[in-house]
Amino acid sequence: MLPLIVENLRFTGQHGPIIKGVNFSLNDAGVTVVMGPNGAGKSVLLRLLHGLLKVNSGQILWNGTGLNEALRKRQSLLFQRPVLLRRSVLANLRFVLKQRHISADDETCLNLLSRVQLDHVAYRSARHLSGGEQQRLALARSLALKPEVLLMDEPAASLDPVSTKMIETIVRDQRANNTKVIFVTHDVSQAHRVADDVLFLHHGEVLEHTSASTFFEQPQSTQARQYLSGEIVV
Amino acid sequence: MQDFAESFSLAFSLVWSFDAHLMEIVWLSVRVSITAVIIALIIGFPLGAALGMTRFPGRQVIIVLVNALMGLPPVVVGLLVYIMLSNAGPFGWLRLLYSPTAMIIAQTVLITPIVTALTREIVEQLHQEYDEFFKSLCISPGQVLATLLWDARYNLITVALAGFGRAIAEVGAVIIVGGNINHLTRVMTTAIALETSKGDLALALALGIILMGLALAVNALVMGFRSTARSTAFG
Ligand SMILES: Nc1ncnc2c1ncn2[C@@H]1O[C@H](COP(=O)(O)OP(=O)(O)OP(=O)(O)O)[C@@H](O)[C@H]1O
Ligand SMILES: [Mg+2]
Prior knowledge:
CATH superfamily of chain B: MetI-like
Bound molecules: adenosine-5'-triphosphate, magnesium ion
CATH architecture of the domain at 4-84 and 148-228 in chain A: 3-Layer(aba) Sandwich
Oligomer: heterodimer
Largest interface: A-B, 20 and 17 residues
Strand order of the largest sheet of chain A: 5-6-7-3-8-9
CATH topology of chain B: MetI-like fold
Number of domains of chain B: 1
Radius of gyration of chain B: 21 Å
CATH architecture of chain B: Orthogonal Bundle
Strand content of chain A: 25-35%
Mean pLDDT of chain B: 93
């Protein structure tokens, strides 16, 4: 599906512009980390890339074509707030597999769940899981679809250290599988560990798009410098 | 006082002995109401779900209309159905007036808006919750509908029960279109009204006891399903 080319992308919400003419391109598989202060437009950007929101102007091209249903089916978006069906953990996994006509027996499903360490709660109601467990179930559901592009919106935001490590391992596995991962996080050290390149978003504009090492060692914009050092970004 | 006590004990013995006349009335009531509920569900579930799932111009108007219909006084519904079914009315040739079918029609008209409105509310809420996930997965509208109905099933059962509760306790509409004819269209509520005015408190009380029992049972079921619904939805 790559390269992804985003040209002059604009999106306006009810209360004004949110993405204000953004340009960037992602050429290689690997992990692109999106960073930026709260409200910068990271989640909106992921939704636009995945086609859940309609662009106002500009374009998003996945290997030369705009997003359509066939392309979207090859992507998976992990929402910042996981959306889980009112069913058991296992049934949540089964649901997405069935939608894609992927047949899987109990063992395959349990294996997938064990990848996110949820096999022991397979038959529990998904809504009874803790916040971090819900995040991990949503991740397992995404992985089950074997997407070529995995969009992850703060997947580790409510995870404990063990689960965080697990997610990072999964992200690395995905990269090794040639899956493109676009990963939103506020955790600087985590970004350090997983990023190939970093996209820094601020007030709906891309202030930087550089390799990870450049971003962390010599951030170009004052805003990125302030963000990285934990100062208030204006 | 003597009379009351006597009526009560007579009433209980009627209920206890499954008095044939009493049971005939109860059975007709239940049959009419259940049939009306089933028809109302067949119309109201898909209609309510469609209203809850989709956005189209005029949708808001339909919602307001359905909500307004929900508040229709039963006697007015009875009157309208009466006019439709009376000899001079457009459906007079069907000769349905004063038949159980007429009562089913009146009750269906009465509870379909209730079923539709409640279903819309439930489905809309769940749809908002699931919408982006469904879009992300590119699920067909039919699958969306099936998933929403399935995941809301406990809530939808309470809708059906609420419809039944309303139908079985209703008197104004069925007395107009049914006429309270003995052995033909006499249901619990109309019989209670008649027997009370005649002074036969025993039969009225016996029916009242059964009606109350049914209402309590329905309410208990509603509460049970509601808590099941809540526990599958959240913790
Ligand atoms: N679907 C939407 N339609 C219109 N406006 C939206 C929508 N979603 C979010 N917004 C607005 O867009 C702005 C950016 O929101 P967004 O969720 O993208 O921020 P974010 O960078 O992901 O922040 P955080 O780090 O807190 O997750 C916010 O001001 C928000 O109110
Ligand atoms: Mg966000």
